[in-house]
Amino acid sequence: MDPATYLASRGVLYRRSFLAAGFTVAQYRRLAAEHLLVRRGVVVHREAPPALRTAASLGGALTCASAAEPFGLWLRDPPPALHLSFTAGHSGRSSSGLIRHRRFGDRPLAADPVLPLPEVCAHALSCLPPNDSVALVESAVVLHGLSLSDVRPLLGHRHGAGALSALNDVRGDAGSIIEVHLRRVLDSMGLRYETQVLIPGVGRVDFLVEGFLIIETDGWQWHGNREQWRRDMDRDTASLGDGYVSLRFRAEQVWSAPEYVRSSITSAFERFKWLLRNS
């Protein structure tokens, strides 16, 4: 790998690790002249995201919500403040607006501007609202094969019972962030349900609640094309013919109007409770 590719693949270059990888001082100096020398021995690619640049310049590492983009994790909205981890200092919001997170076990920061995935998830569980933290950790399991056993030991008493409770809500079977949020709505209602159920003649559905109520969490805007939306509408029609009832919620309804979602589900049960008796 040539020096330029090495920097482009990482976004940030640390002199010591760069030289340890077999590159030369002359190559380091050339990259430092062509890109951004933010601190002594730390070079940031000139096209690196601002968050990565700030983390490297402050000697910290991205974590919690700010590490969602580098890892491709599910997060509804970009964080309004930058979440950085440092080996020293107190946790919490700093005077500059940063959200500071202490590393677990006071381990030194490695030559990487983003914390390891288990620590990112542990910080999210102890910092973000449950809906957001559960979705973020769920995506780490689904997309990266994260083992929750690597996260659980990091959550001590100082992180609160809420962090452990949120971790227990992670199941690793969701297909999208919307499914995670709707799953939490169904849990709050005490309903029995299955996810990603294959129904003959209908296809695979997001949720099958109490054996008869199909709930989907998409639409043509969510899938990105109208043809998929049409297929979904045809599937809804087929499900009615097979004795199922279908509800479909848009992302903004699940996120912004959970009470509407609850009331719609409750109304479906009241109207079609005879199906429940026969299921």
Automatic annotation (TrEMBL):
Residues 189-268 form the DUF559 domain. Keywords: Endonuclease, Hydrolase, Nuclease. GO terms for molecular function: endonuclease activity. The keyword Signal does not apply. This is Very-short-patch-repair endonuclease. It comes from Zhihengliuella halotolerans.
